[in-house]
């Protein structure tokens, strides 16, 4: 900073230009987060406010990393792999190995991993974790279908599994409680929600849960919960992994798609995802059709729920884009909860951590309330869920 | 590349300083408070913006900074003869605190083994051969993880964590090349303290991707100027680095938003490409932060990146972005090739030297990727990027040489000509960077053909 120091006060001139520049820069940066809440939303001040909020991590990098592929030399080099064996940050690899973290998962030939039974861990890297005797992140459920109970099998990812919150606070559990509260006074079957959700499960993994695991519980309703993972560039990670590890693709339609796309075991994850990208809607549609067929065979109902994490809803809706149109055409009732966090001014207040857009207990309550309100006001959805008008 | 000859590791300023005794930095309370106050302000900014805390429960970057600031507060007041010993001890101690003890012990053992070879009475090429062989051995171990675990378990009763190989590569992969190059010209026996100070850099445990610090530059610049000036420069660069890391977050989110909306016009394509290029601020921000931090402890190192967005030619860009890499290549590749071929023609020597630099850069970037990510990077897009970049810089050098031969004086810079050449250069660089970021040529072409 070229400044005529003779015009500066003596005490300031004694500092070098580096000191003046540093202090000015740091003072401005320190002041901005304190001032920005008072700035209006529009105009240049609004742009500044946006920049400060983004600079503070309103849309945290970790969360964006979960759905975006890290391509490019430096982004690939500097981003932490989800593979615990490969950590570019050696300290992070130590930080994640918290002392009491048990293994939450056991191997599965098709799904890659599934829940380890009987875990009771109060303190882990993701909050409290517990699984039942079947490895579900849920309370115990009998295989036999109790009389007078309407069983709802829920298939989702970590948002529905309840990453970062304890079991009683997870939204399927809250929905069950709310619906049963209504039933207690009005009569009718009691609801029982069975949560089959697993962290990072993609639609192709949820398909197998619905077809292979859920029928043992004789559910009355199959509820497929789709989040942004279904529409992100990483939606085909599971297929790519099956191919690269030469595992059995199991389902004929997947084998067909892999053959058509030309994905080979030698392809990198990014290249495999690129080749599979044009097949996203077709795969999702086929999954919906197959779960619907399964539900029909078992005289059960089927519904789809769309949920978002605690993040900017405009972008979430943009990402779902053509998927919404496709789902509408399947004839399956779709309960859209993407607007759950629309009106939340301070989005961090409903997150499990500021950098982690998984909803906290308050966020799960909002999801549950939104679901109940929408289903009760939509006769078709209510009929699907409750089996009665 | 010819302009970089004088910008090599040992600059005239440092060479002059090497011939003169260093000034004695007298600690003074006012000076210390000015520096400490700025560090406190920097810490406050890092807290307010949650810098470096983005990716999960990872407080490593803040811990690094607060530790460094605390060490500075002690280091500042120590007598000169104890300063570097304190710094080295703290750096090595931090490895045992922050990293798994097996990783820290492994790194120390590797450093000790290398130093034993370096200080041995063997000839230079025997030493080099042994070092290269040991690297090959470690490479073999990393490629056979199960066998390696069994071997370590059988011999030592412990299994090495994966992080050991990452940190081994991070610390030794490039700096050992520089050190061995400088060893050839060392007149006295290599000092242990200088060796340890060079390899065990505190920020390296948190930033596996470090700028390739030059050994000679580090030694020549150590405590050669008043610590207040050096530390102030370091704080200035740390502030710049933190600003760039904050900016990186904004660019990352904006780019994510473009991906959600889709590239549907020439304008959004240009916007997306610009944002992709600006992701480099993560690298330049971290480099400013790490080198600035070393300044606090008296290491008067040069700048890592200098206003690269204002490059007016491809050679200018090469000289401004990741300057440490450029100096590393000039020292280890360009000079040896140039001086060997100079007698057969200056231009030929420059062109071959430049092409050699880019060939080695391509190879070493793949080598670096292997050490830090555990997989070899041999991707046609990456190869194409370095080939194209190398050809552009070589063509630029030919053009500059031709103008020199024609006796054309450098014209007085005209602002609009400079602006045009900067815009043109950066347009090409940004396009090239977008190619480098794409997972394949097909994906890059898909992006460019937004109308389809």
Would you write up a description of this structure?
- Chain A has 16 helices and 11 strands.
- In chain A, the strands form 4 sheets. In chain A, strands 6-5-7-8-9 form a 5-stranded parallel β-sheet, sandwiched between helices. Chain A has a two-stranded antiparallel sheet with strand order 1-2. A two-stranded antiparallel ribbon of chain A has the order 3-4.
- Chain A is an alpha/beta fold and 389 residues long.
- Chain A is 44% helix and 12% strand.
- Chain A has a domain at 148-386: 3-Layer(aba) Sandwich (Rossmann fold).
- The N and C termini of chain A lie far apart (74 Å).
- Chain B is mainly alpha-helical and 452 residues long.
- Chain B has 2 domains: 19-226, no CATH class; 308-448, no CATH class.
- In chain B, helix 4 (80-98) packs across helix 5.
- Chain B is globular, with a radius of gyration of 23 Å.
- The relative contact order of chain B is 0.10.
- Chains A and B meet through helix 2, helix 3, helix 4, helix 5 and helix 6 of A and helix 2, helix 8, helix 12 and helix 17 of B.
């Amino acid at each position: 900073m070229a400044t005529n120091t003779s015009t500066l006060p003596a005490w300031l001139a004694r500092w070098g230009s580096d000191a003046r520049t540093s202090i000015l820069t740091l003072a401005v940066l320190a002041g901005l987060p304190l001032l920005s809440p008072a700035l209006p939303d529009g105009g240049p001040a609004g742009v500044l406010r946006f920049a400060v909020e983004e600079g503070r991590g309103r849309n945290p990098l970790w969360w964006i990393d979960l759905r975006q592929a890290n391509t490019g030399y430096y982004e690939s080099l500097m981003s932490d792999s989800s593979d615990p064996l490969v950590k570019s940050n050696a300290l992070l690899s130590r930080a994640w190995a918290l002392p009491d973290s048990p293994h939450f998962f056991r191997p599965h030939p098709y799904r890659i991993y599934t829940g380890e039974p009987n875990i009771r861990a109060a303190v882990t890297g993701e909050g409290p974790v517990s699984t039942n005797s079947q490895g579900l992140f849920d309370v115990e459920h009998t295989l036999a279908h109790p009389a007078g109970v309407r069983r709802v099998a829920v298939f989702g990812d970590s948002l529905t599994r309840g990453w970062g919150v304890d079991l009683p606070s997870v939204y399927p559990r809250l929905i069950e409680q709310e619906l049963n509260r209504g039933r207690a006074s009005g009569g009718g079957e009691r609801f029982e929600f069975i949560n089959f959700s697993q962290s990072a499960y993609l639609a192709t993994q949820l398909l197998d849960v619905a077809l292979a695991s859920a029928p043992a519980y004789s559910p009355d309703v199959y509820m497929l919960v789709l989040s942004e993972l279904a529409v992100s560039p990483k939606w085909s990670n599971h297929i790519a992994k099956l191919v690269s590890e030469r595992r059995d693709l199991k389902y004929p339609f997947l084998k067909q798609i892999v053959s058509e796309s030309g994905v080979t075991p030698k392809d990198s994850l990014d290249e495999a995802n690129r080749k599979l990208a044009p097949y996203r809607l077709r795969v999702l549609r086929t999954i919906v059709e197959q779960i619907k067929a399964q539900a029909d065979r078992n005289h059960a109902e089927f519904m789809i729920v769309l949920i978002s994490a605690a993040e900017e809803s405009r972008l979430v809706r943009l990402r779902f884009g053509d998927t919404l149109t496709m789902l509408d055409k399947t004839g399956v009732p779709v309960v859209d909860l993407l607007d759950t966090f629309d009106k939340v001014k301070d989005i961090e207040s409903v997150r499990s951590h500021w950098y982690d857009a998984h909803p906290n207990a308050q966020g799960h309550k909002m999801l549950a309330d939104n679901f109940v309100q929408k289903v009760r006001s939509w006769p078709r959805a209510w009929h699907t869920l409750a089996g009665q008008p | 590349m010819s302009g970089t000859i004088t910008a090599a590791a040992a600059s005239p300023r440092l060479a002059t300083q090497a011939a003169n005794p260093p000034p004695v930095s007298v600690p003074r309370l006012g000076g210390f408070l000015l520096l400490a106050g700025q560090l406190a302000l920097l810490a406050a900014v890092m807290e307010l913006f949650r810098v470096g805390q983005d990716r999960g429960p990872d407080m490593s970057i803040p811990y690094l900074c607060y530790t460094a600031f605390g060490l500075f507060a002690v280091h500042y007041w120590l007598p000169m003869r104890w300063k570097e010993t304190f710094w080295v001890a703290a750096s090595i101690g931090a490895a045992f605190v922050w990293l798994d003890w097996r990783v820290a012990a492994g790194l120390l053992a590797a450093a000790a083994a290398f130093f034993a070879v370096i200080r041995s009475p063997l000839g230079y090429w025997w030493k080099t051969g042994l070092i290269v062989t040991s690297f090959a051995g470690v490479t073999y171990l990393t490629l056979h993880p199960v066998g390696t675990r069994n071997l370590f378990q059988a011999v030592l009763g412990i299994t090495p964590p994966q992080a050991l190989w990452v940190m081994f590569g991070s610390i030794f992969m490039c700096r050992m090349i520089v050190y061995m190059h400088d060893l050839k010209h060392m007149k006295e026996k290599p000092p242990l303290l200088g060796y340890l100070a060079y390899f065990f850099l505190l920020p390296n445990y948190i930033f596996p991707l470090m700028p390739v610090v030059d050994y000679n530059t580090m030694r020549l610049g150590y405590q050669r100027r008043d610590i207040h000036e050096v530390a102030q420069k370091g704080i200035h660069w740390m502030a710049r680095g933190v600003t760039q890391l904050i900016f990186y977050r904004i660019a990352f989110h904006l780019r994510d938003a473009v991906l959600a909306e889709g590239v549907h016009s020439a304008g959004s394509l240009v916007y997306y490409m610009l944002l992709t290029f600006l992701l480099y601020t993560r690298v330049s921000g971290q480099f400013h932060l790490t080198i600035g931090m070393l300044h606090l402890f008296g290491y008067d190192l040069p700048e890592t990146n200098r206003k690269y967005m204002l490059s007016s030619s491809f050679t200018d860009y090469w000289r401004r972005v990741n300057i440490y890499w450029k100096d590393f290549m000039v020292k280890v590749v360009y000079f040896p090739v140039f001086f060997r071929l100079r007698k057969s023609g200056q231009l030929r020597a420059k062109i071959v030297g430049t092409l050699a630099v880019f060939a080695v850069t391509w190879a070493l970037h793949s080598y670096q990727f292997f050490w830090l990510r555990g997989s070899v990077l041999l991707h046609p897009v990456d190869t194409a990027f370095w080939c194209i970049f190398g050809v552009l810089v070589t063509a630029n050098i030919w053009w500059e040489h031709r103008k020199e031969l024609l006796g054309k004086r450098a014209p007085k810079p005209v602002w609009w000509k400079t602006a045009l050449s900067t815009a043109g250069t950066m347009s090409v660089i940004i396009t090239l960077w977008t190619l480098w970021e794409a997972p394949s040529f097909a994906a890059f072409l898909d992006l460019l053909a937004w109308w389809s």
